Amino acid sequence: MKRTKTDLKNKWVVITGASSGFGRAAAVAFGSAGAQLMLGARRLDRLRETARLATEAGAASVCPHYLDVSSTPSVEEFGNALIEKTQEVQVLVNNAGGALGVDTVLEGKDEDWETMFQTNVLGLLRVSRKVIPLMFKTEGALVINVGSIAGRVAYEGGSAYCGAKAAELQISKALRLELCGSPVRVTSLDPGMAETDFPLVRCKGDEKKAKEVYRGLEPLRAEDIAETMLWLAERPAHVCVDELVIKPTAQAAPHKVFRQ
Ligand code: NDP
Ligand code: 8X3
After folding, report:
1. I want to staple 78 with a disulfide (CB 3.0 to 4.6 A). Which of 67, 69, 165, 258 is the partner?
2. For residue 62, which phi and psi values (nearest 5 degrees)?
């Protein structure tokens, strides 16, 4: 049996939410492995900057393309643009998403709930439906679904986000079963606190509140997550890491954070 690392050189890697945070760092990491990249997000200026960084890192080719995962026509259009470039995808990173607000259930806003489920849950399903058919011929293909520790342990003010990421974990488990017998591996990658635009988006642009999230502790960096994604994708084809939880050393659980 072959025990060689999966080589990503010239292979196609699709990353959603590539305009910032984990998605941008993942584009750079997979770029440094010589992959070809299809990058999606709504903010095209930022997406093009990611493309520039990934090219600089060594990507074989980079295609930044508008994508709104909350819209089926947009996902279809993105997928069709991908199909024009390739019929064979090695890695799909379902990363687009995030949280909106820290309201309790009793204070919750419909638009926040709807956005969280549209992106983290339905978006992931839509993109998976479109892209996974391009992975069946690829030895060592991998779907990385970005979940969260919030999908495993609930906290006050996190109901909809925790619910959405719990759905992500269950979808990953179902997908793993459905794809068993094909070459496609599935991983739910579930990080804890990581320094990205995540809290700024969650706090709706309130920089002071967003900064407070990381006060007195060393959070994960986007690069820590990207490195982990690359490691997952490079495992030999017969190795599937079903679930991976990764947290800052100072965070033992969502509620158990040590601050200096
Ligand atoms: P960022 O806010 O930095 O990145 C979020 C990305 O998602 C952006 O590129 C954004 O692009 C994209 N996105 C949001 N909505 C849509 C949409 N409708 N269509 C397409 N893209 C969209 O945060 P992170 O990098 O931290 O977040 C990435 C993932 O990691 C999310 O799923 C988040 O829930 C998860 N996560 C984050 C943790 C953290 O502490 N940072 C911990 C655990 C999980 P654009 O706005 O340009 O469309
Ligand atoms: C983000 C991690 O702990 O803020 O998914 O919910 S947490």
Report:
1. 67
2. -140, 130
Q: Helix (H, G, I), strand (E, B), or coil: what is residue 246?
A: strand
The two structure tokens encoding residue 195 = 């320094």
Say what the pTM is. 0.98
The 8-class DSSP code of residue 182 comes to B
């068993």: which residue's tokens? 180
Q: How many CB atoms lie within 10 A of CB 169?
A: 17
CA nearest ligand 2 atom 5, residue: 148
The string of DSSP codes covering 44-106 is HHHHHHHHHHHHHHT-SEEEEEE--TT-HHHHHHHHHHHHHH-S-EEEEEE----------GG
* pLDDT score for 3: 81
Could you tell me if the CB of 163 is within 6 A of ligand 2? Answer: no
Our answer to whether residue 161 is catalytic in this structure is yes
Average pLDDT, the chain: 97
CA 192 to ligand 2: nearest atom: 2
Position 119 scores a pLDDT of 98
CA 16 / ligand 1 centre spacing (Å): 9
Site of tokens 């930044």: 64
Query: Is any ligand 1 atom within 6 A of the Cβ of residue 31?
Result: no
Q: pLDDT below 70 — which residues of the chain?
A: 1-2
Best mutation site among 14, 15, 22 for ligand 1 pocket (most ligand atoms within 8 Å of CB): 22
